[in-house]
# Entry
Amino acid sequence: MKENFPLNLGSDAPMVRFSKVTKCYGELTVLDSLDLDVQQNEIVSIIGPSGSGKTTVLRMLMTLEEINDGVIYVDGQPLTHMPKNNELIKANEAHLRKMRNNIGMVFQHFNLFPHMTALGNCMEAPMHVLGMSRTEALARSEELLEMVGLADKIHEHPARLSGGQQQRVAIARALAMRPKILLFDEVTSALDPEVIGEVLNVIRSLASEHSLTMLMVTHQMGFAREISDRICFFYEGKIAEEGAPQQIFENPQNERTRQFLSAVLDAN
Amino acid sequence: MQIDLSAQYRRTRELEKKSYDDELPDDTFHIDNIGAHSGGIMPHQFTIHASA
# Structure
């Protein structure tokens, strides 16, 4: 039971709210009473050193990780909890299932179904979760695969696609459920340098041509600066600094931010 | 290629509402997880779900 947390956030709520969220692995506190809002259609990039809790933020939002304290809200409704008798209790599977549909995630290692074609990967969830007809799912998946530049690869299995192509299928697959929120977890980290651009171009066009709420963990500092409305710098489980890209990259206020950016930009 | 993601958005929300209003049979549970984590399900998890 959660006290002092509202049952819902009302109609003007942010698309995502982390409210005093703590995540521990054993005795290690990965996120410490995190407060973070993401507004509808906002693009937020999370940067920071390894182990600072960046990916954990996305995994908690995708409900791949349980939280130890606090509440996460999505579109004004509690994600990790559900109302019962005017109180918030831990969400059951049915509530999680309903809420998860709001969120899509693209992973560093693609995680495509290896035994399905690109088209099959995209059609699976709309058909089985939404009950969409095969005809409609096919049309939607073909559109999305064409949008990511893979119209000629729809019948290929992942093993016959390059890393960049697989990641573009993964983006199309996440979009096939048309989530309210799209999460990108270091989506270019496993790619060869020459194909990173093709994946970034797809994300870039999504951001510029469509209204999407995006939360992105990335090491691509130039891309984060270009595409984001806001940058959050994580350090030791907390947001050490956040602000507009220009402010974070040109005039960071926090010494840790300065050190991190200096190290990363030097390495690049 | 320009597509209308907002139309997809509206259609998805319609279908979602219908699927919640309908009584889901028990055996959709595992399949549902696949969709919920679309983009995120691990191949080994899929094997477990598919055989469940």
Q: What stands out?
A: Chain B touches chain A at residues 1-3, 5-6, 8-9, 11-12, 15-16, 18-20, 22, 28-29, 31-43, 46 (CB under 8 Å). Chain B is about 65% helix and 0% strand. The longest helix of chain B spans residues 5-21. Residues 24-52 of chain B have pLDDT under 50 and may be disordered.
